[in-house]
Structures are given as C-alpha cells and as structure tokens.
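step=predict obj=Carbohydrate ABC transporter permease n=294
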Amino acid sequence: MTAARLRENAIGYLLILPAALLLLVFVIIPIFYSAGLSLLSWDMMRPKPVFVGLDNYGSLLASEKFYNSLGRTLLYAVMTVPASMLLSLGFALLLDKGLRFAMTIYRSFFFAPIVTSTVAISVVWMYIYHPDYGTANSVLAWFGIGPLRWLNASDTSLLSLAIMAIWKQTGFCVVIYLAGLQAIPVDLEEAAKVDGASLFRIIAQIKLPLLTPTVFFLLIYLTIEQLQTFTQISVMTRGGPAESTELIVMHLWKYAFERFQMGYASAIAIAMLVIILLLTWVQMALIGRKVHYQ
C-alpha cells in the first residue's frame, strides 16, 4: 500500500472518528451495560447488586403485563406507520410538480413538526383533545357528533395518540418522498408521455417502482421509531387510563424509575432490542428483495 493510500485511509478514519465515538459511548456501551444489568437484581439503592442469572428474563416471559404492553405497541405501530406512509406519499405526489420556490416553503411547512419539541407538541394536542373546550370536539360538533373523551377514555386514548403521531411524522415522510421523487430522471417520464402513457401509468409503472428504496427506508425507520414511542405518552397520559396507552417503553420506564427494578427493566430493554432486530430482519427478507435500486 502506497504512502498516499495510507494517508487517504488515515484521513478517512479521522473523519469518521467523532461519529464512531458517539456510537460507541451512547449506543454500543449502553447495550452491553444493559445486557449485564439484566442479569442482576438491583434497586439503585444497594451498593452491590445481586446476580440472579436469567431470572429476570423468566419473570418477563411469564408477565402478562409485558405481553399486553407489547401488543399495544405493535398495534400502535400498525395504526401509525401505514397511514403516515400512504398519506405522505399522496402529498408528495401532489407537490412533486410544484415550482422551485414553492418547494422550499412546502418543505419548511411540512418539516416544522419534526424539529419542534415533542413536549411542546404534546401540550398543544392535550388542549386539542380537551373534552370541554378542545378543538377536536368542536370540529365533531359541526357534524352533529357528540363530544369524545379522547385521552380520558380507554377506547379512544390510543387512537388519539396515533392521530397525533401520524400528523407529526407525515411531514418528515413528505420531505423524504419529495427527495426520492425528484431524484427520478426526468427523461423517463418524458419518454412515457411521448408514448401516450397516462399520469396514473407514469406513477404506477415509473415513479413508484423507482421510489421503492425510499419507501423501504421509511418503513424500517418509522417502525423502529414507533416501537420506541415514549415522550408524548409521558406528557399526555402517563400510560393511562387503565394502562390503555402503556406502550413498551413506558412499561420499561415504570419498572426502572417508579419500582426501581433496574435488572427487570434492563431485561425489557434487551427483549425490545431483539424484537426490533427480528422485525427489521423480517422486513428486509420479505420486502427488501422487491426494492429497485436502479
């Protein structure tokens, strides 16, 4: 290997070093620390944790509350991910032919919820869902529908959080879709128009197949994101009413910082890591082969 090649490699390693250090300190080390902690019984008060082996995992597998929270989490992901992807795809297709200056405005408008604090957004939506003077019930009243209790009723609380999540992440998906659509060569669409293809056929046979890498990325990203939902639940419902919005991360938090069962909470974290990895692998195995990268 020549000196020039060694110098190039050294520069490359130096450039990725900050990101690698962040990944090591905030991701890799915490994962191994949690894995070790999951084998212990520790309430954060005792100076010496007690080694219990796989007992925490045994308790986890026998816990009905764990399965209930996992089921709610998967249901929440099913409610939010497909709706966000389809709704944002429609918006992106409508905006794809907009003027260049208008695109900057639209992107800023749609991306605003992503860069806004989730806590601030949650507080605003709590007012929207207020049963007495909230905007949501005011809109329903126009159609003659009685007021709903939204966050205060078990049958509507999870749906209420899902609606907020769809609104929040649709803008992000629109921006990503627009980037993917505008990367499609214009020559393909022009050639299809010359051949007499309709707008529907252009979208179905040209744009959507070439957009599959973007769709695949958003599917995996949003699935992982929704399985880790915590902040809005912590602010808006605290897992209630009657644990109807206690998703898996909220379930973990309660065991860690309310019951101080850090070993059991770490076991939940490791279980969720495994579940997310399995779901990602299934998505890649079933859908990844249908992605067109060229």
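step=describe
Residues 180 and 211 are 6 Å apart (CA to CA).
step=end
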